[in-house]
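Reviewer 2 asked us to include a model.

Predict the structure of this chain.
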Amino acid sequence: MLNAVYQLKRPRQFELVFKDITFDQEHVIVRPTHLSICNADQRYYQGNRPEEVLKQKLPMALIHEAIGRVVYDPTHQFQVGDNVVMIPNLPSEEDDVIAENYLRSSRFRASGTDGFLQEYVETVPDRLVRLPENINLAVAAFTEIVSVSFHAVDRFMKTAHARRDVIGVWGDGNLGYITSLLLKSLYPEIQVYIMGVNESKLNDFTFADGTYLVNEIPKGFHIDHALECVGGNGAPRAINQIIDYINPEGTIAILGVTEDLAPINTRMVLEKGLRIIGSSRSGREDFVNLVELYKERPEVVDYLENIVGEQIKVREIKDIARAFEMDIHKLIGKTIMIWDK
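Predicted model (structure tokens):
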């Protein structure tokens, strides 16, 4: 069967190509229904990656945050019509120590291999997780980025020492919102404070114990641990501000992505005996555990509804480009493409 794949040929230019899908006894066929635009997709769309990277990876179908409906499953693990979240990480081996999302041999959709911007997606069943009935599908569409935060919080809590009275989260965007929401939902006894640059955005963090603009943090404020969710050009300032306010032997988790090197105050890292851990992407276990959290704590989904942004019906290439252009100018929230084909 010929499958329509919508690839980014060069920055701001999509093209339709057709690739063959073979119905076999090992792969499930899913029809994408809701797709969420990520900052990583935007970096490719706008050409904000090094030229050599763009030459190496394009043309390529974008989108690694998506859900869909099962249309064919010879393995009988799903029913036709099941709503599923699709896992973009594609491991080719198992390791007793290194998680699937850190194996250098793993491929990742929309980063070197075609993402979910396709009419149909062919995948193995363990790259799918069935969604709860009646879940808000617009929220479910960005389950992948929520799973990244879930994974980061899990790694963070396995590393941070036991004194966890106050934890700071730097970043008032989508990643900061999601990460701090999960942290407070999973560990309600911990005081969670958010540091950001936009007072309007900070007002949305109603679940947090407090919020501060980064240039108005009170004297004497200290945290036991911190998570950095800023990325980009703001990452160096955020990391160094965390180093200033964190107590000795605290743990700093870095989640924000930046293309540039970030100079940090290593003298104080040494003097305070700090731990710095990186966290990227997620694996099947994170998706499974997150979907269980959706079922057990529906209020988490309710809070995530606050960052659903534009919902745009997509029928052809010009609609895809329009969605990406609208996403560029958003203040906050996730832009959702509803695959109406």
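The radius of gyration is 20 Å. The chain has two domains: 2-144+282-339, 147-278. We have added this to the supplementary material.
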